[in-house]
Amino acid sequence: MRDNASSRSTARHRRGLLSFRFLISLCFAALTTAAWLTTPGLRITSGAAAAEVDAVGAPAPIGFANVIERVKPAVVGVRVKIKGVTSSGQNQQALPFSPGSPFDQFFRQFGIPIPNIPIRQTEIALASGFFISGDGYIVTNNHVVENSTSVEVTTDDGKTYPAKVIGTDPQTDLALIKVTASTDFPYVRFAASEPRIGDWVLVVGNPFGLGGTVTAGIVSARGRDIGAGPYDDFIQIDAPVNKGNSGGPSFNVKGEVIGVNTAIYSPSGGSVGVAFDIPAETVKLVVQQLKEKGHVTRGWIGVQIQPVTPAIADAIGLKKPGGALVAKLQPNSPAGKGGIEIGDVITSVNGQAVKGSRDLARKIAVLPPGNTAKIGVFHNGQEKTVTVTLGELPRTPAQAKVNEQKERSKESTLGLTLAPATAVAGAGDHGVVVTGVDPNGRAAESGLQTGDVILEVGRRPANTPADVGKMVDEARAQSKHAVLMRIKRGDMTGFVAIPIG
């Protein structure tokens, strides 16, 4: 009996402890829930199965909505029609002679071969662009509008306008087009300063025809050379860019254009986060000329150059690699006329150091043709500066060939090889030195000799070979058969008439 009573007493004691613990657990749960429900910024809805939580009152992350609202109306979709030729044999399904058609049955019935007729087909290309002025000027890519038969743009509000191609520049892959309407268009401006690596970048465009698409990323790198041409200086970004974004703008967080989308790296055909922009500073220079002239003129000195490697620098006595090594001079090139020789290293342009061959191309290209430039060269172990009158870079290979033929013709007609007097030791500070005379040329017939200094042509001073060529061309244009030159030979000066007809 005692044992049974003791057991019952113990059981009651255990049940009492369990009840007390359960009450404590309920109280703790209630307190915890009350505290959670009263925490600022958190809210729970009724329902035992699920709870919906939001972050009302929590700090909002930084967004770009305000910037996009301002710049997005200036971005347009560009639709281009391009005609191509496709033969019937290559595209049977698009032709009336396709298998099973009445024409096919007719030809087969009478044993007549199915004709392979070239059919012109219209191809549609979709891209992007953006207004740079209220009167309808739009920037896009050259590869977007080249070979186009018609161009039209669709604005952010869904309106469509025909566009006219004002000018293109294949060298930088830029084009300027224009729409005309009785309204002022919203437009954006170019950034005044260059972006830094790591800066935010916002891309607005028309990928896959999905107009008004916005993506974001950062500036990944500057000065990228992707082998597109001699003026490669791309901004690399990681904002997603796809087909159709070509010609569209990339913005900074101020809403300024830092670049124009032109290419992507894509083994798969889609975005992998490596895209390339033409820098705003390049776009501004090109667009200004396209607007004024419809094309771009660039300075040219007529040299074929190559990089200076450490081995080359050591071999020629240059302290460190840098500059551009002159491997070839074109006939009657501005560089040759200015005193630059094969084997020289061009180290500076107008006091600015030349880092390499591409840097030289860019520095010369931005200078206006006809202007003079101070070119620093490393010649036979010595630094010197020569003055070169810039020519104009041919816009096409065909034009380059024509220009070369003209120069060769001019050289053979006069029979002179010239250099500035400043580039020839002891020749003085004025005039152009005759460094070579073709014995069968007209100059030799008139008595000119190697070492003579041409002071004037047509009673006007001549200080560069380009001056002589220009004045001779002007005399020919005036239908003159000879040009008068004032020549210095030793201590004597006199006049010589050179036939130019």
Concise synopsis of the structure shown:
This protein is of the alpha+beta class.
**CATH third-tier fold name of the largest domain:** Thrombin, subunit H
Largest sheet: 6 strands, antiparallel, barrel
Mean pLDDT comes to 81
Count of domain modules = 4
CATH top level of the largest domain? Mainly Beta
Span between N and C termini? 148 Å
Portion in helices: 10-25%
Tell me the radius of gyration. 37 Å
Architecture overview:
This protein has 501 residues and is of the alpha+beta class. It folds into four domains: 56 residues; 225 residues, Thrombin, subunit H, CATH 2.40.10; 94 residues, PDZ domain (Pdz3 Domain, Roll); 102 residues, Pdz3 Domain (Roll). The protein is built from eleven helices and 26 strands. The strands form five sheets. It has a six-stranded antiparallel beta barrel with strand order 1-2-3-6-5-4. Strands 7-8-9-12-11-10 form a six-stranded antiparallel beta barrel. Strands 14, 15, 16, 17, 18 and 19 form a six-stranded antiparallel β-sheet that branches. A hairpin with a 4-residue loop joins β5 and β6. The longest helix has 36 residues.
Give the topology, please:
Elements: H1 2-37, H2 65-71, E1 75-86, H3 102-109, E2 119-131, E3 137-140, H4 142-145, E4 148-154, E5 160-169, E6 174-179, E7 200-205, E8 213-224, E9 234-237, E10 249-251, E11 257-264, E12 275-279, H5 280-293, E13 299-300, E14 303-307, H6 310-316, E15 324-329, H7 334-337, E16 345-349, E17 352-353, H8 357-365, E18 372-379, E19 382-389, E20 391-392, H9 397-414, E21 416-420, E22 432-437, H10 442-445, E23 453-457, E24 460-461, H11 465-477, E25 482-489, E26 492-499
Antiparallel strand pairs: 1-2, 1-4, 2-3, 3-6, 4-5, 5-6, 7-8, 7-10, 8-9, 9-12, 10-11, 11-12, 13-20, 14-15, 15-16, 16-17, 16-18, 18-19, 21-22, 22-23, 23-24, 23-25, 25-26
